[in-house]
Amino acid sequence: MAPSPHEESPVPPSQHRAPYFWLPNALTTGAMWAGFYAIVAAIDDNFSRAGMAIFIAMIFDGLDGRVARWTNTQSEFGKEYDSLSDMVSFGLAPAIVVYQFGVARIADYNAVWGKLGWLATFLYAACAAMRLARFNARAGTVDKRYFEGLPSPSAAAAVAGFIWLANEYQLSGLAALVLGFVLTTVIALLMVSSFAYWSFKELNPRGRVRWAYLLIIPVAYILISAGPGEALFGMFAAYVAHAPLIWIWRKIFHRRHRDTEAQAKP
Hints:
This protein has helices at 23-43, 47-70, 76-107, 111-137, 152-168, 174-191, 211-214, 216-226, 228-264, and strands at 146-148, 196-198. With 266 residues, it is mainly alpha-helical. The chain has a two-stranded antiparallel ribbon. α2 runs antiparallel to α5 and α5 packs antiparallel against α6 (174-191).
């Protein structure tokens, strides 16, 4: 039956969107651009700028989703585009930065060291891809308060922070290079682990915030102003380590509690 001329014809949902529906995707493009720039800077042996670019990509990545929710412009395209951008900025870029920084140098000591470094950087890229795929597949079923495994932006920040510091302090000996590849490997495995990382989504900026939390902001500004590389690496290294440390603490505490109960029984 043909619709009456007085009836409204269905309008595609895309036409009901706000005029600024492009803004989240523009921020996602900014994140991917920063990741691409990090790769180019690393190829040019400018590792400080490469590290800065990855942190800039994190800022863009943190904004695109929030802006999409604030403007009610979420879309399946945006989700897929964000995931691909994350793979460039937080998967490939950190792996290539580490490769450019260390593989050629460590190969001068021994060819085996060079192959191990190459494998470590590939492992990081592969684990980042698997971490993103798992996040997309389980997005609707997981506890929003926690991430399953280390988030790829935090992993990239820790790796980039280390390379930034190593470049600033000119750490190029065998020990420093091995430490860099070990750190890259551990962080890669943490991305695909089942450790619960706090997502900070419980914090509601519109609600009541404890005064102690407010102190974090000026303290962070002071630390970053005093030493950007040191402060950023320290903060993200602490975030990387907190989930495994909590898991170890709970295992030890649970074992002690179980042993105490066993001894108390007649």
